[in-house]
Amino acid sequence: MIRWLLWIAGGLVLGGVVHLVSIMWLPRTATQDAYSRLSAFGPVNGFKLLPAPSPADSTMPFMDPAFVAAVCRYDLAKGPVKLTVPLSQAYTSVTFYTRYDVAYYAINDRSAGRRAIELDLMTTKQRDDLPDDEDVTAADRLIVESPTMTGLIVACAFSPEPSLLPTATAALNGAQCKPQ
Q: Which of 14, 32, 34, 88 could be 157's S-S partner, Cβ–Cβ 3.0 to 4.6 Å?
């Protein structure tokens, strides 16, 4: 009886290990991830507005029609990226994702406290290379460290009424994601 229980326990442990390994490996082997699908929408290090979702079609899953979204595919190989997103009237948020769709930082208009969300995106190595005697304090400059060299920045602006969609769209049209 104990022998059968050991075989069952061993099978469950082996099945759990195989399941976890396949779940962790799957995002790295997928060919149609968000980064790949959005490569057709615009250049690297530049924002591009996503088309409004419809019931039959949407660029990304679970898009809300009350939000206008813009995406920047970034590449930090040539240096840090300067991000500027003007705030809309209602709500604006910016979320950072790695190349493999892991969210690692988010900020919204209430956290920014200005008329625009402004920050510098760089790797840990690029941040370590910054001069120590810089006159810029941490309160003057927000720096976000990216865990990967490439990834996505998604900016969203909320439109509480359909008549305010042009205002939200105009806010995201002014978004910039450019190398420093």
A: 88
